[in-house]
Automatic annotation (TrEMBL):
Matches recorded under InterPro entries: AIM24, AIM24_sf, Trp_RNA-bd_attenuator-like_dom
Domain of life: Bacteria
Pfam entry (one): AIM24
Protein name: TIGR00266 family protein
Amino acid sequence: MISHEIDYKIIGDDIQVVEIELDPRETVIAEAGAMLYMEDGIQFETKMGDGSEPNQSIMGKIFQAGTRVLTGESLFMTHFTNLGVGKRKVAFSAPYPGTIMPIDLSKIYGNELIVQKDGFLCAAMGTSMKIHFNQRFGSGLFGGEGFILQKLKGDGMAFVHAGGVVMERQLNNETLRIDTGCVVAFEQSLSFDIQRSGGLKSMVFGGEGMFLATLRGTGRCWIQSMPISKLIQRLSPGGGNAKKESGSVIGGLGNLFES
């Protein structure tokens, strides 16, 4: 096993915390600013890169850090290592209401998981986090997930944050159409694309949006009920009609005139 083997506990319901228990010399990597508390004996260090390639050159680390900026994440990552004698705990909190998903990458197809660009929270040392480009133009332009996603690779535990409730679906040579922006993660065996939601009448008056995300093939995917973009939309002025109108052409024109 390449990644450190860590124990964990998920605390809370709506705004969750993941508590990681580290054996001596074990390390967990996390997004900058995600730490909630840590016990005595744990030392943290801010570094460029995820540490999965210890012999990586300086230019390689700079390039990797630059790709993280493209995904909207911090330039640096924080490494938390237990330098004490016994077990020690460190906890990380979710940035907004939702669910923390524990993912065992050793049980993921190809040990690789494609994640929305702001979904990564923390992972066992040895997990590689790289940039993943949407190969289809429409997926990046209309999909809500953007052109750039994250790819997690390894054989240890990784923790992904999502908005609202998270549902796991297993596709067996099937097609699943999902509201844009609600795809949290999916295995690389699935193809991701964006398609029109229906005919012209449905697109204009349906209120379900002009486009839907489409996952096709065999593999697992994870869906969030309330992505942060929708939450902001609901809380913004005039957001009360968002459920009914935000996805339709009529709703978009109404919002334009209100502005």
